[in-house]
């Protein structure tokens, strides 16, 4: 279950109408941020897309920064919840489960992925810390898989946290270039990247010795 910190926060009016408007603000901001970048988008533009006066946005989000934080926390909360609910064969290798889940989930959410990774630099320090804590929760899933697998001899990983970030960065880059209808299907991409991930942690890998102090 996603933590309380991962739940999107907004100062929305109570009632169904207020919630609907806040959802429309999120949708419009998501599209604008993904297309033009957070810094280039104004609250006035978001308001125009929603069909309300700029001042009406402040009933739901005090600042543009609050919208960005809300979008990122919503993405992470939904991602963690989806992982908890994902259905895979019980005997599937945990690394395969993670790779397939990550690719399938993120390929359907290119805008959310772009914002969640490329706009981290635009978060204010306090907001960055909150979002980063949720990102670490997700990374911790793969780190745990790699640590357990290494202890059992299925993988060979000298630094599980570093390997986690490398694998996630590799997988998360797919939505930036993959286009449906090309030579490779989504399943082809899954198989190729799963092979890459497996080779990266294969037990026979020779690791570079750690530098001497």
From TrEMBL:
GO terms for molecular function: DNA-binding transcription factor activity; transcription cis-regulatory region binding. PROSITE patterns: HTH_TETR_1 (PS01081), HTH_TETR_2 (PS50977). Residues 19-79 form the HTH tetR-type domain. Keywords: DNA-binding. Residues 42-61 bind DNA. Residues 1-13 have a biased composition (Low complexity). Residues 1-21 are annotated as: Disordered. It comes from the Bacteria. InterPro entries: DNA-bd_HTH_TetR-type_CS (IPR023772), Homeodomain-like_sf (IPR009057), HTH-type_TetR-like_transc_reg (IPR050109), HTH_TetR (IPR001647), KstR2_TetR_C (IPR041490), Tet_transcr_reg_TetR-rel_C_sf (IPR036271). This is HTH-type transcriptional repressor KstR2. It comes from Roseibium aggregatum. The gene is kstR2_3.
């Amino acid at each position: 279950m996603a933590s309380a910190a991962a739940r999107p926060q907004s100062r929305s009016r109570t009632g169904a109408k207020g919630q609907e408007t806040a959802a429309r603000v999120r949708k419009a901001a998501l599209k604008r941020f993904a297309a033009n970048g957070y810094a280039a988008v104004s609250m006035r533009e978001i308001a125009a897309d929603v069909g309300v006066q700029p001042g009406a946005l402040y009933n739901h989000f005090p600042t543009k920064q609050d919208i960005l934080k809300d979008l990122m926390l919503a993405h992470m909360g939904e991602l963690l919840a989806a992982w908890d609910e994902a259905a895979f064969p019980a005997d599937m290798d945990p690394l395969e489960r993670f790779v397939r889940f990550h690719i399938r989930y993120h390929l359907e959410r290119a805008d959310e992925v772009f914002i969640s990774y490329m706009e981290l630099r635009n978060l204010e320090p306090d907001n960055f810390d909150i979002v980063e804590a949720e990102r670490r929760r997700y990374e911790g899933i793969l780190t745990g898989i790699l640590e357990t697998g290494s202890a059992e001899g299925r993988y060979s990983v000298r630094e599980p946290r570093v390997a986690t970030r490398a694998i996630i960065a590799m997988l998360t880059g797919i939505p930036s270039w993959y286009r449906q209808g090309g030579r490779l299907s989504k399943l082809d991409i899954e198989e190729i990247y799963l092979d890459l991930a497996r080779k990266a942690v294969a037990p026979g890998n020779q690791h570079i010795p750690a530098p001497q102090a």
